[in-house]
Automatic annotation (TrEMBL):
Pathway, per record: Steroid biosynthesis; cholesterol biosynthesis
UniProt entry keywords in alphabetical sequence: Cholesterol biosynthesis, Cholesterol metabolism, Endoplasmic reticulum, Lipid biosynthesis, Lipid metabolism, Membrane, NADP, Oxidoreductase, Steroid biosynthesis, Steroid metabolism, Sterol biosynthesis, Sterol metabolism, Transmembrane, Transmembrane helix
GO cellular component: endoplasmic reticulum membrane
Source organism of this protein record: Corvus brachyrhynchos (American crow)
Residues spanning the membrane: 37-58, 92-114, 148-168, 180-201, 237-255, 262-282, 302-320, 332-351, 415-440
Enzyme class: oxidoreductase
Subcellular location: Endoplasmic reticulum membrane
Protein's job: Catalyzes the last step of the cholesterol synthesis pathway, which transforms cholesta-5,7-dien-3beta-ol (7-dehydrocholesterol,7-DHC) into cholesterol by reducing the C7-C8 double bond of its sterol core. Can also metabolize cholesta-5,7,24-trien-3beta-ol (7-dehydrodemosterol, 7-DHD) to desmosterol, which is then metabolized by the Delta(24)-sterol reductase (DHCR24) to cholesterol.
Record field: compositional bias (Basic and acidic residues): 1-15
Protein name: 7-dehydrocholesterol reductase
Main location, first listed in the record: endoplasmic reticulum
Length: 475
């Protein structure tokens, strides 16, 4: 009898310990469970003002030749009322709704219906069914990686139309830019709201959901980790990559076509923006399998931040340089153009090589060569929600020995190059570098906070070995 009771007690203790462990690791890893006032204030600010910021930028180009100060001056001096500006803003049209619906449907069809064939003939390209990282609940999701082929098919059709079929003008995106903005907003809000409802009522994986109890925080940062419809329609992979990033290069092409139509030529600055951003987009799709291991997929939950951000913020604000150049066609002198090209290519190379080093290191579990040598690293461990202990490695050599996020530094150099391509007349094209600096610095701090919770003392060893974040010796 006593033995039986002791066994029962031991089992209860074990169960209690497991619950505590689970709580601890749930609290440690992933996005917040509790919302502090600063996070809440930031979130409310973004929810209220991010759509206005996008509107302000696009409207200022449409009505004020891209001046960011003139609309404010007009309003402050009483020269114009808000209603005057609003009344001159193009409204939602059936044409834009048709174009947008067709566009999104086409991307869904490419994503869902055509399994990847690029990996069968492109050496070095990783496509087809790939596994993502282990989630906090210990799940490993499978993804159909076919973004490169979606991008190629879309662009082949675009060029075929522009050169042979002429079903629609290549300026179609620019010509419907503001009506399309309303469509993108409708989709952005619809998908974020749907994701929230889905998180409550029919989550894909209940164990990977997070509820803070704060409606605004949950709406913004998401509840579900990897919401899906059916086995394959993954919200994060679809909305981040397509329609937003596939559209990025098409939008730039449409802006270039508009320059051609308005001025009879495409300026070298527009070509630079198209080429440099084109390389970045193509790189994204070439490395879509690698993208499965980035913060967006591995750590962020799917809410308004990703849903609305992918539908509206990305296609509208990442393409500001091209839009600006339609209104201000800048022809750069050769030295300036070459300087921009060099900076853009150098930034891209650093960005790519740094990301590649980590990817190679993680894929081979450290059994590779970085700059001709075996990589150095720190062994670390962490717990998933089910209480299982996992092991990982943090590299401390190559670019990852220079700074903890040198990939961001390369990204920022490339971003600066896009802005510099637009000359120095206006501040609007420089929004991108300001935004990217804030985004990546915040992301770096956010990621480090998460890694610190995940790896504990092992992370401290790592930061002691690699003390700088973005710039060796400075930050
Ligand atoms: P990283 O690719 O830098 O991934 C960070 C994760 O990598 C960490 O959470 C950690 O994950 C792991 N890690 C960190 N340090 C090491 C190390 N020393 N060795 C091995 N693994 C390490 O960040 P992102 O996902 O944010 O960025 C990916 C790229 O996308 C970047 O180049 C960035 O510039 C770009 N980007 C571009 C954006 C844009 O809007 N243009 C937006 C965001 C990103 P783990 O838990 O697995 O250890």
């Amino acid at each position: 009898m006593a033995a039986h009771q002791e066994k029962k007690l031991a089992e209860e203790r074990k169960h209690q310990n497991m619950q505590n462990d689970t709580k601890a690791s749930q609290g440690q890893w992933g996005r917040a469970w509790e919302v502090d006032w600063f996070s809440l204030a930031s979130i409310l600010f973004l929810l209220m003002f991010a759509p206005l910021i996008v509107y302000y930028f696009i409207m200022s180009c449409d009505q004020y030749q891209c001046s960011l100060t003139d609309p404010l001056l007009d309003l402050l001096t009483g020269n114009k009322h808000l209603s005057d500006i609003w009344n001159r803003t193009p409204t939602l049209t059936y044409r834009a709704a048709g174009i947008y619906s067709l566009w999104v449907t086409f991307q869904v069809v490419l994503y869902m219906s055509i399994p990847d064939f690029c990996h069968q003939f492109l050496p070095g390209y990783v496509g087809g069914v790939q596994e993502g990282a282990v989630t906090p609940a210990g799940v490993v999701n499978k993804y159909e990686i076919n973004g490169l082929q979606a991008w190629i098919i879309t662009h082949v059709l675009w060029f075929a139309n522009a050169s042979c079929f002429h079903f629609f003008p290549p300026t179609i995106i620019f010509d419907n830019w503001i009506p399309l903005l309303w469509c993108a907003n409708i989709l952005g809000y619809a998908v974020s709201t749907f994701a929230m409802i889905k998180g409550y009522f029919f989550p894909t994986n209940a164990k990977d959901c997070k509820f803070t109890g704060n409606f605004f925080y949950d709406y913004m940062m998401g509840i579900e980790f990897n919401p899906r419809i059916g086995k394959w329609f993954d919200f994060k992979l679809f909305f981040n990559g397509r329609p937003g990033i596939v559209a990025w290069t098409l939008i730039n092409l449409s802006f270039a076509a508009k320059q051609q139509e308005l001025y009879g030529e495409v300026t070298n600055s527009m070509i630079l923006v198209n080429v440099l951003q084109g390389i970045y987009v193509l790189d994204f799709f070439w490395n879509e399998a690698w993208y499965l291991k980035t913060i967006d997929i591995c750590h962020d939950h799917f809410g308004w931040y990703l849903g609305w951000g992918d539908c509206v913020w990305l296609p509208y604000l990442y393409t500001l340089q091209g839009l600006y150049l339609v209104y201000h066609p800048v022809q750069l002198c050769t030295a300036h153009a070459v300087g921009v090209l060099m900076l853009g290519l150098l930034g891209y190379s650093i960005f790519r090589m740094t990301n590649h080093q980590k990817d190679l290191f993680r894929r081979t579990n450290g059994n590779c060569r970085i700059w001709g040598k075996k990589p150095e690293y720190i062994e670390c461990s962490y717990m998933s929600v089910d209480g299982t202990k996992h092991y990982s490695k943090l590299m401390t050599s190559g670019f990852w020995g220079w700074a903890r996020h040198f990939n961001y530094t390369g990204d920022l150099m490339g971003s600066l190059a896009y802005c510099l391509a637009c000359g120095f007349e206006h501040i609007l094209p420089y929004f991108y570098i300001v935004y990217m600096t804030i985004l990546l610095t915040h992301r770096c701090i956010r990621d480090e906070h998460r890694c610190c919770s995940k790896y504990g003392k092992d992370w401290k060893h790592y930061t002691a070995a690699v003390p700088y974040r973005l710039l060796p010796g400075i930050f």
